Amino acid sequence: MQQLISLLVENKPGALMRVAGVLTSRGYNIESLTVAKALDPTLSIMTIVAEVGETGRDLLIKQISRLVNVIKAVDLTQSRAVRREMVLIRVYVEGARRAALLTEAQIFRAHVVDASQTSYMIEATGSPDKLDALISLLRSYGPIEVVRSGAMAMARSKHNKLPVPYFSETTQAG
Amino acid sequence: MMEAGEAERGILNMQKLSGAQILIESLVREGAEAVFGYPGGVTLPVYDILYSHPLRHVLVRHEQNAAFAAQGYARATGKAGVCMATSGPGATNLTTGLVDALLDSIPVVAITGQVPQALIGRDAFQEADTFGISRSATKHNYLVKDVREVAQTVHEAFHIAVSGRPGPVLIDITKDVLLGKTSYSEDQPMAPLRGYRPEAEPDEEEIEQAVRFLWNAERPYIYAGGGVISSGASRELVRLSEILEAPLAHTVMGLGAMPSEHPNFISMLGMHGSYAANMGITECDALIGLGVRFDDRVTGRLDKFAPHAQVLHVDIDPAEINKNRRADLGIVGDARTVLQRLNEALESTRESLGGVRRRERLAWMAHIREMKRQHPFTFTPSDEEIKPQVLMRKLDRIAGGDAIVTVDVGQHQMWAAQLMRFNKPRLWQSSSGLGSMGFGVPAAVGAKFARPEKLVMAIVGDGGFMMSIPELGTIAANRLPVKIIVMNNNSLGMVRQWQELFYDRRYSEVFIEAFPDAHLLAAAFGLSGGTVADPADLDRALDTAFSDPGPYLLNVQVTPEECVYPMVPAGGAVSDMIMEPAAEPVGAAAGD
Questions:
Q1: What percent of chain A has pLDDT over 70?
Q2: In what helix (H) or strand (E) does residue B37 lie, and over which residues does it extend?
Q3: Of B348, B374, B400, at which residue does a domain stop?
Q4: Which residues of chain B neighbour A19 with C-beta distances below 8 Å?
Q5: What single DSSP character describes residue B353?
Q6: Residue B583's pLDDT is what?
Q7: Which end of chain B is more exposed for a tag (fewer CB within 10 A), N or C?
Q8: Buried-exposed string B311-330: b where 16+ CB fall within 10 A, e elsewhere
């Protein structure tokens, strides 16, 4: 089953390599990995989805946590977390079916970001399941190309939150 | 008003130094006493500083041995050992020694030179991706691309290497950084590490639970490893065993933490462990694992390992708890701190709780001692050949439980672990986790530099010795009085043993032919040495070797086809030991 890991790491060269190394050296395949700077630019936040058996999950979190650059690693697999992904889809579609496609895309709150005479490029965000459904629907219109961002996640409960410093405009101004 | 001297020093402190100078000053500031290294193109600026610097540099003959020698220094002292190599092949040659340090949790700081930043990524001469290669070979690593980061990086590297679960740290520094200049002051403050909190304190409740667990045990058993030595917890460990009146077995890494002569000590456990240690762990009802990682060479088949026991596991690395064996109670913390707290709590509850199961515990201890008496390590005596076990016993008498003994990997390593006594920690040095042949001789070099007053002997096999021959040069050049004892069975004995037992005696590529004449080989380096093959000559040969004030190479021809017993076949239960057929106890037969 897939494990969802949320990580706060120092934004330093090699940090990504170290985290990925813990997974690959144990033979786990990374399904997706997203990383970007946090509000504090010396920190980065990563979300990793990997195929990890139930028995290996605790150990994996501990082995990632002991990396010197890792400030906190939490397992969000079983906890309440918002999980979102973004997708860009180019659908090759012509003629009368173009209008039908746009109507159906709206059901998914997807919108068109580029268009040509023979194709649309559509952008959508949502849970991975929702995006799977959108992709399979659009396939029925013609050949498609897909680029997915991989999952990003944020814990709902305080319990699993990453210890990211709060940034507030008002306190900064004061 | 400032004194003139102080003012001058202030100016001196703020002067601009090169990256190479800052590197060396930072090493000294962190307490380095010696650097084991080998120069090359990109480290020329560092060696130019070393030319006139008091910091001692020991020129080894191969970079792998620089890492092993640094380990020898670290294992003997507990301080970080320092090694240095140039870019490319220098750095890749260090790698085995670093992985070795990683698996045995030995603090090492490795410095490597890197090609100038302008050339990185262009397949420059002697360029290798050292930062990438060493990522999985170290606890942490750095690539320094700014001269202003040199001092801070060296400081962090030493801190990371020695704190928490110790390990190797590598610093890769580009040549332009070594040549660049910046201001340096030896008292400039160091920034803390944000993601690294190596120390953990056990809480009161954990200690209370552990105390109830221990006093409730009828058949307690202490299984102690390298973590006890790293944390300097020998005294506390012995105390625990004495309070509980519990038997104690060591892993290969733990030998010396409890004196081998202590009555509660039942030798090593695992694949070539003692009968009492392996049966004891199978029968115990409370297993106390201290600074251990439940390695497969210890546990054998996991589901048959300590099958009746509840487990208390103490380790400084949270990732070790529940890794291989589920702990009923896991305490994350430094072994010494935890044991101090535990011993105090046990002492204060001894009157109320200590008596509840004492009768059972004493019967258990008597049973263990009886097993130890009935099943000592055994061998088959011979008048014609030198038996390896006899050699180990004689070396043990010379060492007296107080010499530094380094070994390679294989049969000689296991016999030495079984048959030699270590009455203090940091005497026994073995590449235990990685099992690197060629470790013993360079480790002895490092240990001798660390503890010049100690007798240091490297006991190695003929295979491993062939990998270490270049270091005879280091030993000769420094007139380093280490004793090298080659237990020569003309084969890769442990591989041969497995081929004998599990591959139908199809001896494939295990015979080390053309072993050099030890006397001539030593003489070629200007050293003393010799060979002994007749048991009648062994005492005299050992006397010659050890009474010589200088280094000595002694090649001892032993029984070629001999197996290490007991033996737990890989993947078998530790209680299913293969015992040596029709044999005598080693002690009595060796004339102890």
A1: 94
A2: strand B34-37
A3: B374
A4: none
A5: I
A6: 79
A7: N
A8: bbbbbbbbbbbbbebebebb
Q: Are B490 and B511 in contact (CB under 8 A)?
A: yes
- Does B136 contact A at CB distance below 8 Å? yes
| 8-state DSSP, B354 | I
B126 in catalytic set: yes
Size of interface A-B (CB pairs under 8 A): 38
Interchain CB distance below 8 Å, B131 and A14: yes
What ipTM was predicted for this assembly? 0.88
Domains in chain A with CATH codes: 2-79 (3.30.70.260), 83-152 (3.30.70.1150)
Which residue in this structure is represented by tokens 């442990």?
A: B494
- What are the structure tokens assigned to B174, written together? 């580009």
Residue A174 confidence (pLDDT) above 70: no
Q: Does residue B63 carry a catalytic annotation?
A: yes
For chain B, the domain total comes to: 3
* pLDDT beneath 70, residues of chain B: 1-14, 588-592
* Residue B548 placed within a domain: yes
Residue-wise pLDDT for A115-146, tens only, equals 999 999 999 999 999 999 999 999 999 999 99
Task: Select from B156, B155, B179 the least CA-distant residue to B47.
Answer: B179
- Predicted local distance difference test score (pLDDT) of residue A36: 95
Q: Dihedral of the CA atoms B6, B11, B14, B17 (nearest 10)?
A: -120
Q: Checking phi first, is residue A77 left (phi over 0); if not, alpha (psi -120 to 50) or beta?
A: alpha
CA distance to A31, A49, A107, B527, per residue, from A123 (Å): 21, 22, 13, 77
Q: Calculate how close chain B gets to A115, using CA atoms only, in Å.
A: 40
Report residue B244 as tokens. 């509980």
Distance separating alpha carbons of residues B401 and A146, to the nearest angstrom: 69
Q: B74 and B26: one domain?
A: yes
- State the pLDDT at residue B2: 45
CATH code of the domain containing B282: 3.40.50.1220
Same domain, B340 and B462: no
B20 half-sphere exposure, CB direction, 13 A CA radius: 19
> Do B390 and B518 lie in a common domain?
yes
Do B401 and B370 lie in one domain? The reply is no
φ, ψ at B510 (rounded to 5°): -115, -5
Burial B213-229 (b: 16+ CB within 10 A, else e): bbbebebbbbbbbbbbb
Catalytic: B125? Answer: yes
Q: Is A163 an interface residue toward B (CB < 8 Å)?
A: no
Rounded CA separation B324/B222 (Å)? 17
No. of H helices and E strands in chain A? 5, 9
Which residues of chain B make contact with A62, given a CB cutoff of 8 A?
A: 318-319
Angle at CA of residue B368, ends B366 and B373, nearest 5°: 90
Tens-digit pLDDT profile for residues A43-80: 999 999 999 998 899 999 999 999 999 999 999 998 88
In terms of residue numbers, what domain contains B534? 378-564
Q: Is residue B3 part of a domain?
A: no
* pLDDT tens digits along B341-369: 999 999 999 999 999 999 999 999 999 99
- Quote the Cα angle for B487-B493-B498, to 5°: 160
pTM score of the predicted model = 0.94
pLDDT, residue B192, reads 85
- Please return the burial class of A109, using the count of CB atoms within 10 Å of its CB with bins 0-12, 13-18 and 19+: exposed
DSSP state for residue B494 in the 8-state scheme: H
* Cα gap B174→B364, rounded to integer Å: 61
Judgement on whether residues B536 and B410 belong to the same structural domain of the protein: yes
In whole numbers, what is the pLDDT of chain B averaged over residues?
95
